[in-house]
């Protein structure tokens, strides 16, 4: 395994110190859980005890304008916003045929774009770019009500670059060291340039979201009871409703910007990168391609688009998807949780408010679960 592979350190430390150990992120001590059995016993079976989030107040101020959204929040704010987002997305067809139709429409659009490139004489095709556009269009339609096509493609390319920069910077060891006492680092050489880079990226990224929200506010008729057309409209209608009730609530403008950020980040990068890795693995293993094609020929038997209803019949294709998700290891360092009470992990007493990291990158490559070739 390559020495620069991000998850290798966690597996190496597991061999030296056991499956539960402490490491440091700058000045923050974090307890890593690196085996399957312990992960299930703790974060799955006793999830409430690990449902907290370590509050990096200054870091959140730098990259978010405060502790907002759903990724970095907990308690009532997290429950209220998560519940609302799921409700809205279900109304838009999440997990239903309506959502499947939207996805298949984007698949058709992507295939058409590639066919047009072939017709124009192109011999090389950037499939990852095509995937990015399709995934981005689905997410943007849910959030803001429109797809990326025509003149809107330039918007997507700009937004995608900002998201990639943010993801790349968050994985940097320099940023890891800045998680605590973040504002202090703007005075230190090397760290200073990263501090202002993160600030600039936030302003540009949230500027895009703010523009969409402002356009919705300008065009939205709050006097009607019509069903929301996208997430932002649903949020703004809920915001007005709670304002009129005169009760304190979390449906603020800054919360909306952060929800847009979280939903974009969670959907775009994970989906397109997973499919991208799948294509790379399939190119590297043509024998897997042959077996997948054979199963599709036997079970589908035509050139129609594959749907969720076919899933139970496509055992080999399902295995390819699952193995891709394991091998690609999209988030080498997982989200930092916080214990909400004292717990015991493998005989170790872990006090309340301890930072806990379920290090999935180590679990995915655990030889006890998946023998290594």
From TrEMBL:
GO terms for molecular function: heme binding; iron ion binding; oxidoreductase activity, acting on paired donors, with incorporation or reduction of molecular oxygen, reduced flavin or flavoprotein as one donor, and incorporation of one atom of oxygen. SUPFAM superfamilies: Cytochrome P450 (SSF48264). Gene3D superfamilies: Cytochrome P450. GO terms for cellular component: cytoplasm. Its cofactor is heme. Keywords: Iron, Metal-binding, Monooxygenase, Oxidoreductase. GO terms for biological process: organic acid metabolic process; xenobiotic metabolic process. PANTHER family: CYTOCHROME P450 508A4-RELATED (PTHR24300), CYTOCHROME P450 FAMILY (PTHR24300:SF369). Belongs to the cytochrome P450 family. This is Unspecific monooxygenase. It comes from Acrobeloides nanus.
């Amino acid at each position: 395994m390559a020495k620069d592979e991000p998850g290798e350190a966690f597996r190496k430390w597991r061999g030296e110190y056991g499956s539960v150990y402490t490491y440091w992120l700058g000045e923050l001590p974090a307890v890593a859980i690196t085996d399957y059995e312990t992960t299930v016993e703790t974060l799955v079976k006793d999830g409430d005890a690990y449902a907290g989030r370590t509050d990096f107040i200054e870091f959140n101020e730098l990259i978010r304008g405060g502790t907002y959204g759903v990724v970095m929040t907990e308690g009532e704010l997290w429950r209220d916003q998560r519940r609302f987002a799921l409700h809205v997305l279900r109304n838009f067809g999440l997990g239903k045929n309506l959502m499947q139709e939207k996805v298949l429409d984007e698949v058709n659009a992507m295939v058409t774009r590639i066919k047009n490139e072939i017709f124009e004489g192109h011999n090389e095709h950037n499939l990852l770019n095509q995937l990015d556009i399709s995934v981005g269009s689905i997410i943007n339609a849910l959030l803001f009500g429109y797809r990326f096509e025509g003149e809107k493609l330039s918007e997507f390319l700009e937004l995608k670059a900002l998201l990639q920069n943010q993801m790349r910077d968050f994985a940097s060891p320099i940023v890891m060291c800045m998680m605590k006492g973040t504002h202090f680092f703007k005075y230190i050489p090397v760290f200073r340039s990263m501090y202002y880079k993160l600030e600039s990226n936030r302003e540009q990224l949230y500027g895009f979201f703010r523009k969409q929200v402002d356009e919705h506010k300008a065009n939205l008729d709050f006097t009607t009871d019509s069903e929301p057309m996208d997430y932002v409209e649903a949020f703004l209608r809920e915001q007005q409703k709670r304002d009129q009730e005169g009760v304190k609530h979390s449906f603020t403008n800054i919360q909306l910007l952060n929800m847009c950020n979280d939903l974009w980040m969670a959907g775009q990068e994970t989906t397109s990168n997973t499919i991208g890795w799948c294509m790379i693995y399939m190119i590297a293993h043509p024998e897997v391609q042959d077996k997948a094609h054979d199963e599709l020929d036997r079970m589908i038997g035509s050139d129609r688009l594959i749907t969720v209803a076919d899933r139970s019949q496509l055992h080999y294709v399902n295995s390819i998807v699952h193995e891709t998700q394991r091998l690609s290891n999209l988030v080498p360092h997982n989200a930092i949780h916080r214990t909400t009470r004292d717990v015991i992990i493998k005989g170790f007493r872990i006090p309340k408010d301890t930072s806990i990291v379920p290090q999935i990158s180590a679990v995915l490559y655990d030889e006890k679960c998946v023998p290594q070739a």
